[in-house]
Write a structure and sequence with these properties.
By secondary structure, the chain is α/β, with parallel strands linked by helices. It starts with 6 loop residues before the first strand and ends with a helix. Adenosine-5'-triphosphate (ATP) binds next to helix 1 and helix 14. InterPro entries: AAA+_ATPase, ABC_carbohydrate_import_ATPase, ABC_transporter-like_ATP-bd, ABC_transporter-like_CS, P-loop_NTPase.
Length: 510
């Protein structure tokens, strides 16, 4: 007997343009009840635009949407909720000054007879959803006090509170810890079993293989192919090559290595050093050196204190004690301005808050930290700025509808490329990197890795944090393992591998 699978959501010939540039060129999707359908494509391919149309955010488009065979046209996200559509956005959209529970139930706060908010019920309802997905955040906590990973879990809870039938997940895992991803995937499995239709966007192949039923590949706004993973028997590595080839249009034989070659020799010249950095409750007596040509990875579990150390070096956070040396000379950094003046840059994990200025263009953002280099006789040299922008658009393949586009209108991955360009262009002596490739497609990742390697080869001391272990292993010449605020081990060269890293952490776990 043929199994009849119900199509819950269908898009027909969806086309969308921004300012005369077509970014979706006729998309026909069929999302079935009880399936996780992944959208895969390079940064700027049109994935978010497509699901924003389904969610009623973009209403000016050509084509049709059907839910359970009925034609619909979501007018706005509220309308989409009424049609049974729920979405988790790529960029977090919570209100920091409200409590967690108020954010989850915003616009639907339970009221008492006298019209005031029924906080008791609000917190209880919120706690019930949290319990379902094992979240331990307090419903009355202010969102501004939460880590990015916790904020993302709150976004997911908010989506679940709508009990939607069609669920749109735009890179929901980009800031989650491994544990958070596991909790999310368990929830997604449950939603699938309950017959929901789920669209999932991710750049991480291990996530695609873990939960997707089918994958549709988009390239430059065009629908390239749909692969049914449940019918594929090839090993994941082979499937990955096939998907990358579909995404990029590169022949499978021509897809190169993801990571550049590591430094052959590291000189003895110490470029950067920190001594005895201590901040009670966060990190304790952190000391290390970075030599010329070296990429050093700071590795550890979430909460090990890595981001805090990096933020203190950059002057973003204070520290109780500790000394900093650049090229052998002691330096004092009280704030990020001092750090930048001394040639220290930070690619931060939170691109929205501190990475770029959304209301400015690409040129202004890329030249933000090097503005003095482009000043001649007191005037900004526009030609120099433009050249720099064009260089980076080319080097990192930044997809934009025009050179004049505002950075806030770029796709998420392309915004991240602008942040990275800004710091690569700054000719830093020390570059601190926290989660550099969040939301970046696989091809752009390899280009960014090569640029980081080139910087190190040219004398920049690089200190990197990433939650993606393969990235840390693939790039670092030396890894410092941090656990509970202390450096517990140092690994060099081939000794930087999963087993040694995990052993170092667990040997020091209580
Ligand atoms: N509001 C907007 N105004 C102008 N152009 C836009 C707007 N939103 C998106 N675009 C453009 O549409 C194209 C597709 O962007 P979209 O965000 O859909 O890509 P994506 O596939 O989701 O990429 P990523 O993987 O980086 O998130 C990009 O060129 C982007 O610059």
């Amino acid at each position: 007997m043929v199994r009849v699978t119900e199509v819950m959501l269908e898009t027909k010939h969806i086309k969308k343009a921004f300012g005369g540039i077509t970014v979706l060129k006729g998309i026909n999707l069929e999302i079935k009840k009880g399936e996780v359908h992944t959208l895969l494509g390079a940064n700027g391919a049109g994935k978010s635009t497509l699901i924003k149309i389904i969610d009623g955010i973009h209403t000016d488009f050509e084509g049709e949407i059907f839910i359970n065979g009925e034609r619909v046209r979501p007018k706005n996200p509220n309308d989409a909720r009424l049609l049974g559509i729920g979405m988790v956005h790529q960029e977090l959209s919570l209100i920091p000054t409200l409590s967690v529970a108020e954010n989850v139930f915003i616009g639907r706060l339970p009221k008492l007879a006298n019209g005031l908010v029924n906080f008791k019920k609000l917190y209880r309802d919120c706690a019930n959803i949290f319990e379902e997905i094992n979240i331990t955040i307090k419903p009355n906590e202010m969102v501004k006090n939460l880590s990015i990973a916790d904020r993302q879990m709150v976004e997911i809870a908010k989506m679940l509170s709508h009990q939607s039938e069609i669920i749109l997940l735009d890179e929901p895992t980009s800031s989650l810890s491994d544990d958070g991803v596991e909790r999310l995937f368990k929830t997604v499995e449950k939603l699938r079993e309950n017959g929901k239709a789920i669209i999932f966007i991710t750049h991480k192949f291990e996530e695609i293989f873990a939960i997707s039923d089918r994958v549709t590949v988009l390239r430059d706004g065009q629908q390239i192919d749909t692969i049914d993973l449940n019918m594929e028997t090839a090993p994941h590595s082979q499937l990955e090559t096939k998907l990358v080839s579909l995404m990029t249009g590169t022949h499978e034989d021509e897809i190169g290595e993801l990571y550049p070659k590591k430094a052959k020799e590291i000189s003895d010249e110490v470029v950067f050093e920190v001594q005895d950095y201590t901040q009670e409750g966060k990190y304790d007596q952190i000391s290390f050196q970075i030599k010329r040509g070296e990429i050093v990875g700071l590795v550890g579990l979430k909460g090990a204190g890595r981001t805090e150390v990096i933020r203190s070096i950059f002057g973003r956070d204070t520290k109780q004690s500790g000394r900093t040396f650049l090229n052998g000379e002691e330096i004092t950094i009280k704030n990020p301005r001092d750090a930048i003046k001394k040639g220290i840059g930070l690619i931060s994990e939170d691109r929205k808050e501190e990475g770029f200025v959304g209301c400015l263009g690409l040129k202004e953002n890329i030249n933000l930290t090097t503005i003095m280099d482009t000043v001649t006789f007191g005037l900004i040299n526009k030609a120099k700025e433009t050249k720099k922008m064009r260089d980076y658009i080319k080097k990192l393949n930044i997809r934009t509808t025009s050179e004049q586009a505002l950075v806030r209108n770029l796709s998420g991955g392309n915004q991240q490329k602008v942040v990275i360009s800004k710091w690569l262009a700054a000719n830093c002596k020390v570059l601190l990197i926290d989660e550099p490739t969040r939301g970046i497609d696989v091809k752009a990742k390899s280009e960014i890795y090569q640029l980081i390697r080139d910087l190190a080869d040219n004398g920049t001391a690089v200190l990197m944090i990433t939650s993606e272990l393969p990235e840390l292993i693939g790039l670092s010449d030396r890894a410092l393992v941090m656990h509970e605020g202390k450096i517990v081990n140092e690994l060099v060269g081939d000794a930087i591998n999963d087993e040694n890293i995990m052993n170092s952490i667990f040997k020091h776990s209580a």
